[in-house]
Design brief:
Elements lengths: L22 H10 L1 H13 L9 H17 L7 H25 L10 H10 L13 H4 L2 H17 L2 H28 L3 E2 L2 E2 L14 H24 L14 H4 L4 H19 L3 H18 L9 H20 L1 H10 L6 H14 L10 H8 L16 H9 L1 H24 L5 H17 L8 H16 L5 H4 L9
Antiparallel strand pairs: 1-2
Helix pairs in contact: 2-3, 2-8, 2-20, 3-7, 4-7, 4-18, 7-20, 8-9, 8-11, 8-20, 9-11, 9-12, 9-19, 12-13, 12-19, 15-17, 17-18, 18-19, 19-20
Length: 491
């Protein structure tokens, strides 16, 4: 399929791999997961295509495909750490299910109905069936994006426990990102007011790819750029001498050994990076820049002098990133000059959301009901123009809709995920690029979701959670590390 890959058998300092008859068992497990692998790859590549997969019908299709993949997946070859990860996901799902039961049930076990139902019954003179949710049954209809993200994470762990499949997933996400970036850039030059066959309505002049919102597009292109930066770093590092890096290692003679796969990786990174800057998303660009600098620094941390090398590398990478933003990201710089770090009314919106949380701290107002609940708490300082259908902060919206306890459980889950990814990136020498890529995508998604809602858009969330799952699967030693033969995923 070509010679572009994430790992090369002729790397000068590659770890030796011993083929054994047990490799047949690994191949059998991989074959058993073939349906799950293909469905995951197809979904991860296609999820951003239909306008970011924001409508219920599209999300339902992804849930069906991912559900079939989960049912068909084999977990027999998973190690104990991966099984423990799936158990942890199951515990969070159980907590989620309990909150949804309380919000949907006519007779909740411990939750109190929303007081609005009693007020409505009094005004209408009719005994309405009360509910914890301000909009009855809405939590059920709003479950799709959450279900898709959980299924993608689960599949990522199962499929990503095979090192070859984990690397292939990165390539699938990376190359689809290049395709969407090319479309977005060309579309912005040819017809800047259109997304596919629809009119944008907003964000004219900004690259959004196939997403409706430029901020979600920025997190997606930033995540793809981080993946390609790590691929490029790996391609360069394996052509340099083993041991601490010296300036002379980067001589023309050494760099001339780089094959064309490194040039392709650089071109792919550059396309995704340019699309990122052309989104003009302040938070998206800032989060992506942080993740790119962190990923590059962590990848080369073992190859630098202990005292000053790491600090110099981080400083240099940050400087290069700032220069690129200044000279190539004119629209981003212009938005910082005009609007600083926050839009008008954003902080007032957060205060109003905090008031919602204070009045319904345990079970929230119901999943998917923010648009119905917010008008009651909307601050007079917020402009009357527009409708606030999102809190523009995923943690705040989760707490407002689902309550503080479940939000805390989800937060603890993310802390554990980040801890495991950092551990995997530090301890793994071979395949460290997979947990590093997952860590970079996690940083981009989480940092941006503090001030926006990118992880609530299925077109990005499915991709992000699949990569995170693969990174978790590769944060521990797997059967393919111990018994597999030479594995060289290629394009």
């Amino acid at each position: 399929m070509g010679e572009l890959g994430l790992a090369s058998a002729d790397a000068p300092h590659a770890e030796p791999v011993i083929s054994t008859p047990a490799g047949a068992e690994t191949a059998a497990a991989s074959g058993a997961n073939r349906i799950a692998v293909y469905l995951l790859f197809i979904t991860a590549a296609a999820a951003p295509l239909p306008f970011g997969s924001r409508d219920a019908t599209t999300v339902a299709i992804w849930c069906i495909l991912l559900g079939i993949a989960v049912v068909s997946a084999s977990v027999r070859e998973l190690g104990k750490p991966q099984q423990a990860l799936l158990l942890g996901v199951g515990l969070i799902v159980a907590c989620y299910a309990f909150v949804l039961h309380e919000q949907l049930s006519d007779k909740p076990l411990i939750a109190k109905p929303h007081p609005l139902w009693a007020e409505a019954s009094g005004l209408l003179g009719d005994g309405l069936i009360s509910s914890v949710s301000i909009a009855k049954c809405e939590p059920f209809y709003s479950l799709g994006p959450t279900l898709a993200a959980i299924l993608a994470l689960t599949l990522g762990v199962v499929v990503g426990s095979d090192r070859s499949r984990a690397r292939q997933l990165l390539l699938v996400v990376g190359w689809s990102g290049v395709g969407y970036a090319c479309y977005g850039i060309i579309s912005n030059l040819v017809e800047p007011t259109m997304i596919l066959w629809r009119e944008k309505g907003t964000y004219d002049g900004s690259v959004t790819g196939t997403f409706i919102n430029r901020n979600t597009a920025a997190t997606y292109f930033g995540s793809c750029a981080a993946i390609w930066l790590l691929v490029l770093s790996e391609r360069i590092r394996e052509r340099l001498p083993a041991g601490p890096l010296q300036f002379r290692d980067f001589s023309q003679h050494s760099l001339s050994k780089l094959r064309r796969n490194a040039a392709f990786a650089f071109l792919a990174f550059f396309i995704c990076f340019m699309a990122l800057l052309m989104t003009a998303s302040r938070a998206g660009v800032m989060a992506s820049m942080f993740a790119l600098v962190a990923a590059f620094t962590l990848f080369f941390r073992r190859d630098l002098p202990k005292r000053s090398g790491l600090a110099l590398l981080a400083t240099g990478a940050a400087g290069v990133a700032l220069v690129l933003v200044q000279f190539l990201g004119g629209s981003v710089s212009q938005r910082f000059d005009l609007q600083s770090l926050a839009d008008e009314g954003r902080l007032d919106g957060y205060r109003s959301t905090l008031q919602m949380i204070a009045e319904h701290p345990w079970f929230g107002t119901g999943l998917g009901t923010f648009a119905w609940s917010f008008p009651t708490y909307r601050s007079a300082e917020i402009s009357l123009f527009g409708v606030w259908n999102r809190a523009h902060s995923t943690p705040l919206e989760l707490a407002a809709e689902l309550g503080i306890p479940l939000t805390a459980v989800i937060g603890l889950g993310w802390i554990l995920i980040l801890t495991l990814l950092i551990r995997g990136a530090r301890r793994r020498r071979r395949d460290a690029v997979v947990p590093l890529a997952a860590l970079s995508v996690s940083f981009i998604g989480l940092l941006h979701s503090i001030v926006d809602f990118s992880l609530q858009v299925s077109g990005y969330a499915i991709v992000a959670f699949a990569v995170v799952g693969a990174g978790l699967g590769q944060s521990f030693r797997t059967s393919t590390d111990q018994i597999g033969g030479k594995i060289k995923p290629s394009l």
